[in-house]
Design brief:
The protein is of the alpha/beta class. It has 2 domains: 323 residues, ABC transporter transmembrane region fold (Up-down Bundle), CATH 1.20.1560; 239 residues, P-loop containing nucleotide triphosphate hydrolases (Rossmann fold). Helix content is 62%, strand content 11%. It contains 20 helices and 12 strands. The chain has a 6-stranded mixed β-sheet, with helices on both faces. The longest helix is centred in the middle third of the chain and has 53 residues.
């Protein structure tokens, strides 16, 4: 029922255009009723059984006129359906993209970007093709009803036999519907794995060449394609089996009906024209029955597509995928529109941020963070430290709503933050991840990302991020194109470019996830000193480097996802064994090497 409910909701976006398509294609598919009736009169006239005074040539002219009308209607209908097809597709894709960009809660892709592309492309297409079957079915059903009515008035018993294939097709399709859904889902998932792997190959070309792993990558790519070929073949074979059995059922039934017609004609039960009418209508009804079989199978396939699209919209209200909000379209295409996220009804400068009993455990490993509690006051520099795998990144991502917390509270100035993913972003908070993402654009565009802070603000952000010396060395300065994922920059330049991007936002709270991992000791020290000299900064920093630990107002020590100690560096070195181990390790890592 959800498939039907979602489809009706999607139709409500532009019901007028949908009904126009139903009317146009209904007229196109039902006009053969007139052709059949005129054909009967032609044969009756030729056989001498005519009931009207119209001659054969007049009837032939009328048949040609009906054919010309169908062609004209089809030309108009193609234009109208094309408009509706792209409009309905745009609604689905707009809803998917809008939720990923601005919906509340965690908006991390459940699968790879390649899999997401498959849902935007193939699943949307399946749903709209299902609606296309609806528009075609309107005319075919009308044709069947009228044709069956005319045939029943002529030969009731034979007409009842025509209904048998329809019942058989419906029963058969219902029996195999489970397999239709199973094979379609497996085919879509296999396609997603292939497209995801292609994306990973393009993003890792250098690593593959350095490791001489080309043959292994090709072998893996071949294996994934073989898997996709296998499940796609199952899906295609089942679809063709359903279609061929539908056709076989109809053809066998048609043969039996023709035998009944021949027998009735021999006994003079009806005229030659009636016989021609039955033959003509049987051909049309056969096509209509096959289409109805396709419609039932398409219903199952589109149900899988709805499930896959809604699964990508994590935490979205039911029916968000088919939300019919106005979309500004014109003859020139989709016009720009504002995307507004849900925001709390208040915006206050940070005084305190409290985290109480925060819990998130990864569903596959069971590892994560448990009962983490700490607070940050305005102007503080708080460092979260711990061994590799202690949960530092998980804690920051859960705090920001990038991972869905399973328990706990986050309070901004003593007020609960129910949706941290929407609230903890500029102007409230800004974040630099451990592995920043740059786009294949200029360094300036990567720092600004649409921000209009002016050249002075940009220059200050670049300077505070200790990026200015690198910009001076670049051939085009800030106008240098950094390449996909910033491949033309070093790891440290990428990190500082992301830091400059964050500093452009002038957020109350700045969160750094191990930004120092790609920086040398002196550059990191310069970054922290410049930041606190120029701004009233409030920072949460995940790090184990000495430059950050020495500057920290407070250090939170994590061990296996839990807070084991908290305080200033000197006190922790006296009382916390874990802190002493981390301090000694950081000292060894920062010792200069001798060539």
């Amino acid at each position: 029922m959800k498939t039907l409910r979602y489809t009706l909701a999607l139709i409500r976006y532009n019901p007028g255009l949908f009904l126009l398509n139903c009317l146009v294609w209904g007229l196109h598919h039902s006009l053969p009723v007139l052709t059949g009736l005129l054909t009967r009169e032609v044969f009756n006239t030729l056989s001498g059984n005519a009931t009207t005074g119209i001659n054969v040539w007049t009837l032939l002219v009328l048949i040609a006129a009906v054919a010309a009308a169908r062609i004209s209607i089809m030309a108009y209908g193609v234009r109208q359906w094309s408009t509706y097809y792209f409009e309905a597709s745009a609604v689905l894709r707009r809803n998917l993209l809008r939720w990923l960009v601005s919906g509340y809660g965690s908006r991390v892709l459940a699968d790879s970007p390649g899999e997401a592309v498959s849902r935007f492309r193939d699943d949307v297409d399946d749903v709209v093709r299902y609606i296309e079957n609806w528009t075609d079915s309107a005319g075919h059903i009308l044709l069947m009803l009228v044709a069956l009515g005319v045939m029943y008035a002529t030969a009731p018993l034979i007409t009842l036999a025509v209904i048998v294939p329809l019942v058989a097709i419906a029963v058969f399709t219902q029996r195999v519907s489970g397999r239709i859904r199973k094979y379609r889902r497996a085919m879509r998932e296999a396609t997603g794995r292939v497209t995801a792997f292609i994306g990973e190959i393009f993003g890792s070309v250098q690593a593959l060449k350095v490791a001489s792993a080309e043959q292994h990558v090709v072998a893996q790519f071949r294996r994934l394609n073989d898997e996709r070929h296998h499940v796609a073949l199952k899906d295609s074979v089942l679809r063709e089996i359903v279609r061929s059995l539908d056709t076989s059922i109809v053809n066998v039934s048609t043969g039996a009906i023709l035998i009944m017609l021949a027998s009735a004609a021999q006994h003079g039960a009806f005229s030659v024209g009636d016989f021609a009418l039955f033959i003509f209508f049987l051909n049309r009804i056969t096509r209509s029955l096959s289409l109805i079989g396709d419609l039932l199978a398409s219903h199952r396939r589109s149900g899988v597509s709805y499930e896959r699209m809604t699964a990508m919209m994590a935490n979205a209200p039911s029916g968000s995928i088919v939300a019919s909000d106005p979309m500004p379209l014109s003859v020139k295409g989709l016009q720009p529109f504002e995307i507004e996220a849900d925001r709390p009804p208040y915006v206050e400068r940070l005084r305190t941020l409290e985290v109480r009993d925060l819990i998130y455990l990864h569903p596959t490993t069971g590892r994560g963070i448990a009962n983490v509690t700490f607070s940050v006051a305005r102007g503080e520099f708080v460092v979260i430290t711990g061994r590799i795998g202690a949960g530092k990144t998980t804690l920051l991502r859960t705090l920001l709503g990038l991972l869905p917390r399973q328990s706990g509270e986050i309070l901004w100035n003593d007020r609960p933050v129910h949706d941290p993913a929407s609230f903890l972003r500029p102007p409230h908070a800004a974040y630099t991840p451990q592995v920043p993402r740059l786009f294949s654009d200029t360094l300036r565009s990567n720092i600004l990302l649409g921000e209009e802070g002016g050249d002075e603000a940009l220059a200050e952000s670049v300077r505070l991020a200790v990026l200015q010396p690198d910009v001076d060395d670049l051939e085009l300065g800030l106008e240098t194109t950094v390449g996909p994922r910033g491949v033309k920059l070093s790891g440290g330049q990428v990190q500082r470019g992301a830091a400059a991007r964050m500093l452009m936002r002038s957020a109350d709270l700045m969160i750094f996830d191990d930004i120092s991992s790609a920086l040398d000791v002196e550059t990191e020290r310069t970054l922290w000193e410049g930041l606190f000299e120029q701004r009233e900064a409030t920072c949460i920093v995940a790090s184990h480097r000495r430059a950050a630990l020495q500057r920290a107002d407070r250090i939170i020590v994590l061990f296996e996802g839990e807070v084991v100690a908290e305080g200033r560096l000197d006190a922790l070195l006296r009382t916390c064994v874990e802190m002493r181990m981390l301090w000694n390790t950081s000292h060894e890592e920062e010792l200069p090497t001798i060539a």
